[in-house]
């Protein structure tokens, strides 16, 4: 089942289930309660399918990348947070601020939490996962590495629009079967199997829940693998995961003050 969120032509925001190119409104994400008549997807401007309370990203969670970079496999998620204002969705224009310098795309599989969980087992964590989505964890390399005494993970990943999520949340998919692909101006630049993860989605959720309470709607980006590259203004960057969909944004130059 695919869940989406969007704006209708008359400005109403709706969340619902996508069936046969129609968006069927529901009372809230995950609800079975109807909330109005179905609307053609062609009449809806898609938004990020969820507005997360917490937007968490992982580093060094793929075997191929860890091997190439000489990193050990972590036994606990190595994570950071992205600001809520970093959230953007399908078709957005994402500005590269002058202070961001060199930025890269990072195509990733995103986990969406479906219910509150705290200190849960991997088995229970699997039941807390509502579904999966596409994420582009855009990152400023210049900011990240600017101060050798303190890698600036949060700042590097929290510029407005740098957290691309969408186009939908798919609840009926096996993460092991998925391939994450990134196209830049239509040219494939990254492609890797989700099955190469070091920590699996249930393990990620379980371990993070030992540190903090996870709530419905929280998003966890599972980390990226080999192939992340710099991007510049004017480029269209699309993250595609067959079985979920694709989400693309256009990078733009910083506006003059």
| Strand portion | 35-45%
Mean pLDDT: 97
CATH-derived architecture of the largest domain = Alpha-Beta Complex
Judged by helices, strands and strand pairing, the structural class is: mainly beta
Number of domains: 2
Largest sheet: 12 strands, mixed
- In sequence order, what are the helices and strands, one letter per element? EEEEEEHEEEEEHEEHHEEEHEEEE
Based on Cα principal axes, name the global outline.
globular
The low-confidence runs, each spanning 5 or more residues with pLDDT under 50, are none
- State the end-to-end CA separation: 44 Å
Q: Mind telling me the CATH superfamily name of the largest domain?
A: Fumarylacetoacetase-like, C-terminal domain
Cα radius of gyration in angstroms: 18 Å
Number of helices: 5
The CATH topology label of the largest domain is Fumarylacetoacetate hydrolase, domain 2
Tell how many strands the DSSP assignment holds.
Answer: 20
The CATH class of the largest domain is identified as Alpha Beta
In short:
This protein has 257 residues and is mainly β.
